[in-house]
User: Which sequence fits this backbone?
């Protein structure tokens, strides 16, 4: 019997791949999924009314690359193809992504042509960044912050106005702390091996691609052919974990809600006990843990304090999410994905998503304001209330977007420790953690956003990889 710890997307995907493996190998491994709350889906939560959809966590999924296509394969297999709403390259949400700098909104270039033009706040066309890369000597390093790397290779403006806000948008983090390997592993390797990104790119053109082939479903092929930028799910992203949960239930996975695990006791290499405070025990042959690393640290602390210490040293940040609905006939915003605010601007907000432009079936203007992240405590202190966040969000959209209306509906949430930060040394730390588990022969696999990528695609792909690894 295998136990899946946590019912977020990581845990649900693990159940999905274990079931597929059972089917492929004619195996009948009994599966349990233990979730602390009364909801499966983790951070993915949607509020859907007849007039608007609020996404309280993630809202869009990228279709590109092996991990993106793999998610689309899963979507089709679950019967969700009809619910997928793509944002194609000609959609305003694909073309218009903005940054807020010096009291103005600036649209970032989205076409090849745009790279040769001067776009404010940049003082030169972006193509000049490549000349900078060619001129710069390389610096031999094990790891570096993504900010340092980009500043060294492409210049300070790109680091401040392109990469720093992008990191805020992806993980609400500080580019000066996040590892270059988080987003630019290949570019960093090119610098280290060949002395620069352009030099590495040129050499790579003469090498055959080693990308693993993935068999594609019709949905994934369509996304590739139509060059989707991102996509959402009609009825709210919550439809996705809900459908996965139903699939697991239909295939006899024993899903136990309101079942918080408080301690893990490893007996031998194929026996492990999961205990809770009420004194209940579940004995399994293997655990797939998809809970945040800091939560797992508490559960293994008693038997494995060194492992717990490494798990606990993966930092997480808190994000404030303010969803706003304005029941106005005319849109209050220009058509765009939204805007991000570079940290150098020292704003209380990280950015605003224009949901009525990217999420279907919105009857008015819908916005989501994101606040805090790496700077949550510094900006809002320890006892910030939801009302304070709402007031700040309304003040900022009034000043930046000139919206003076009172929202018709709103929802505010403070998501405590919701996004892991892959700071410098993260990948080496994860290797060390997995090596410890291997050396001690512990029957546990690590899945979820703490280890192999923070986005939806990464979490699903990590579940698939770990299941394949453990079952072969
Ligand atoms: C605000 C926000 C916006 C985001 N936007 C995007 C986006 O647009 N696109 C994208 O690709 N990704 C986005 N992400 C990332 C994406 O949401 C995550 O990658 C994904 O949801 C993580 O899933 P998970 O299963 O790893 O973790 P979680 O969702 O954290 O799930 C873990 C589960 O474990 C349970 N649990 C914890 N401790 C225990 C215990 N002791 N016993 C039992 N159960 C326990 C929890 O209750 C929870 O249900 C966003 C994340 C956030 C927070």
Assistant:
């Amino acid at each position: 019997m295998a136990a899946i710890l946590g019912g977020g997307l990581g845990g649900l995907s693990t159940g999905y791949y274990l079931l597929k493996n059972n089917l492929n190998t004619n195996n009948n491994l009994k599966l349990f999924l233990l979730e602390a709350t009364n909801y499966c889906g983790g951070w993915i939560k949607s509020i859907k009314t007849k007039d608007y959809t609020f996404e309280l966590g993630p809202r869009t999924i990228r279709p590109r690359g092996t991990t993106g296509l793999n998610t689309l394969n899963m979507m089709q297999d679950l019967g969700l193809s009809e619910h997928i709403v793509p944002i194609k390259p000609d959609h305003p949400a694909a073309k218009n992504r903005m940054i807020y700098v010096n009291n103005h909104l600036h649209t970032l270039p989205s076409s090849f042509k745009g790279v040769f033009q001067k776009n404010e706040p940049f003082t030169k066309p972006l193509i000049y960044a490549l000349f900078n890369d060619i001129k710069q000597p390389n610096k031999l390093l094990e790891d570096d912050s993504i900010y340092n790397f980009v500043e060294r290779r492409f210049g300070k403006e790109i680091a401040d106005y392109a990469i720093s806000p992008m990191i805020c948008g992806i993980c609400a983090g500080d580019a000066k702390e996040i590892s270059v390997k988080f987003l630019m592993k290949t570019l960093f390797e090119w610098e280290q091996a060949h002395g620069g990104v352009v030099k590495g790119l040129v050499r790579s053109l003469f090498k055959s691609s080693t990308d693993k082939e993935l068999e594609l479903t019709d949905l994934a092929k369509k996304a590739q052919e139509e060059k989707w930028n991102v996509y959402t799910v009609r009825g709210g992203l919550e439809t996705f974990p809900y459908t996965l949960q139903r699939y697991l239930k239909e295939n006899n996975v024993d899903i136990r809600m309101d079942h918080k695990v408080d301690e893990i006791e490893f007996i031998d290499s194929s026996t492990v006990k999961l205990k809770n405070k009420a004194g209940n025990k579940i004995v399994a042959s293997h655990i797939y843990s998809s809970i945040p690393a800091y939560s797992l640290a508490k559960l293994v602390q008693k038997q494995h304090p060194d492992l717990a210490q490494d798990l606990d040293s993966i930092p997480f940040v808190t994000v404030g999410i303010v969803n706003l609905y304005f029941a106005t006939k005319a849109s209050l915003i220009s058509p765009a994905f939204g805007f991000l605010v570079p940290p150098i601007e020292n704003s209380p907000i990280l950015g605003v998503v224009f949901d009525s432009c990217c999420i279907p079936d919105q009857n008015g203007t819908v916005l989501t304001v994101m606040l805090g992240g790496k700077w949550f405590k510094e900006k809002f202190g320890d006892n910030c209330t939801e009302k304070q966040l709402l007031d700040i969000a309304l003040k900022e959209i009034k000043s930046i977007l000139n919206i003076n209306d009172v929202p018709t509906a709103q929802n505010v949430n403070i998501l405590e420790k919701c996004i892991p930060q892959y700071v410098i040394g993260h990948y080496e730390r994860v290797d060390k953690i997995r090596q410890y588990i291997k050396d001690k022969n512990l029957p546990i696999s690590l899945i979820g956003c703490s280890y192999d990528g923070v986005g939806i695609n990464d979490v699903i792909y990590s579940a698939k990889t770990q299941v394949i690894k453990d079952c072969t």
Notes: The domain at 2-44+238-314+423-471 is CATH 3.50.50.60 (FAD/NAD(P)-binding domain). The chain has a mean pLDDT of 95. Residues 139 and 380 are 38 Å apart (CA to CA). The pocket of flavin-adenine dinucleotide is lined by residues 5-11, 34-37, 42-44, 57-61, 260-261, 290-292, 295, 319, 321, 415, 418-419, 448-449, 454-456, 459 (CB under 6 Å).
